[in-house]
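About this split. The held-out portion is used to measure sequence recovery: a designer receives only the structure tokens and must propose an amino acid at every position. Recovery is the fraction of positions where the proposal matches the reference. Here is one held-out target exactly as it appears in the evaluation file.
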């Protein structure tokens, strides 16, 4: 881990009881648990020898813990590699041994498909996201992060662009191909390219299937794999107390803007402005998603779109309030940019409304706070929304 990574603050606050820490590879789960629990007994299932011994006899976990009588925490890295260990851990938790279990994982697929009940609700499920701008502070460089993303493993590398290019290969080789999740890895690679055109757009699986030349059912399966590996997420429509007919389909995002760019092909027929616009919206989406997970009050991320195509890019709803945000890839605010937020206020007058743009000035127009992207992202910290 690089010095740049070591100096980074993380907003994630670990629970005092047992918990699962789920997040894609490269988000810093191992680094974080080493910082938080330096004296913990660690079971690293990415280590071949550990994996062999534990898979041959999962009961060894009990013996390892018994052999360390003073240990207070047990960290099991990449627990989805051997879900059987959860059964042993569950019995030990029931016996109230006074040991806290922390399970990290980069895939929810095996845990769910294996019928694992995630310890019967005795362990909370938490998420670790790529960096937020406020975690990096002065080291957050807007244009660089918009190009390379916010993954700690990329941010801390000597050659970030090279690491980002290798990231897709890591998942294709180690997660998809090694686990036998798809029969044709080439088709899945084409799917990754085709789905990149859906970044920040309402998801149309029929169009994606046509682009990568497979049937819709196969595409649905591929999308499920992508989400199980925590590489993408969908943002649903905000329908609470709806007064109009709304869109029915969610919007699609890669979990990190750098991963989106790594998958999105570029050429002479591709519009840089269109790609930058999708990247900008993705960068805001991943920040808001992290904010929702790290903040108290059960906040949820949505978007809002009427049947007549009046849209607000993001709606955050939770105990602290209702927030509506529009993202514009422009240096100035035009009257038409505010249309969606004005319509949203007619239905939800209590909403705090924001327009994020590439300019440098803070503006208040028609009750809408217009903020530069960089300032907004740097001010976005858990349990507090920029003002």
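Reference sequence for scoring:
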């Amino acid at each position: 881990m690089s010095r740049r990574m070591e100096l980074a603050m993380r907003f994630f606050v670990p629970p005092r009881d047992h918990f699962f820490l789920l997040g894609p590879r490269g988000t810093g789960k191992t680094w974080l648990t080493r910082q938080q629990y330096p004296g913990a007994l660690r079971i690293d299932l990415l280590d071949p020898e550990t994996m062999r011994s534990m898979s041959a006899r999962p009961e060894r976990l009990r013996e390892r813990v018994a052999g360390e009588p003073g240990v207070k925490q047990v960290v099991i890295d990449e627990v989805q590699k051997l879900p059987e260990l959860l059964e042993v851990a569950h019995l030990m938790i029931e016996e109230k041994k006074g040991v806290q279990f922390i399970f990290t994982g980069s895939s929810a697929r095996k845990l769910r498909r294996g019928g694992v009940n995630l310890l019967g609700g005795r362990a909370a499920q938490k998420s670790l996201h790529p960096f937020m701008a406020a975690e990096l502070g002065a080291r957050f460089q807007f244009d660089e992060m918009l190009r390379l993303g916010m993954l700690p493993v990329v941010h801390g590398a000597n050659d970030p662009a090279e690491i980002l290019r290798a990231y897709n290969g890591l998942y294709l080789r180690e997660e998809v191909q090694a686990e036998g999740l798809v029969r044709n890895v080439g088709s899945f690679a084409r799917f990754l390219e085709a789905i990149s055109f859906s970044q920040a757009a309402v998801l149309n699986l029929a169009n994606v299937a046509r682009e990568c030349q497979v049937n819709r059912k196969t595409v649905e399966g591929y999308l499920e794999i992508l989400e199980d590996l925590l590489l993408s997420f969908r943002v649903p429509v905000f329908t609470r107390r709806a007064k109009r007919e709304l869109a029915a389909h969610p919007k699609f995002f890669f979990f990190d803007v750098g991963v989106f760019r790594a998958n999105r092909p570029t050429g002479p027929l591709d519009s840089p402005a269109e790609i930058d616009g999708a990247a900008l919206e993705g960068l805001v989406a991943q920040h808001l998603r992290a904010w929702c997970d790290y903040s108290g009050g059960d906040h949820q991320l949505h978007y809002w779109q009427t049947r007549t195509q009046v849209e607000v890019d993001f709606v955050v709803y939770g105990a602290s309030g209702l927030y509506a945000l529009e993202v514009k890839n422009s240096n100035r605010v035009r009257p038409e940019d505010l249309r969606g937020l004005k319509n949203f206020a007619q239905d939800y007058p209590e909403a705090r409304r924001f327009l994020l743009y590439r300019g440098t000035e803070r503006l208040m127009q028609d009750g809408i706070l217009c903020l530069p992207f960089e300032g907004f992202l740097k001010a976005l910290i858990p349990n507090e929304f920029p003002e």
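Annotator remark: Residues 133-379 form one domain.
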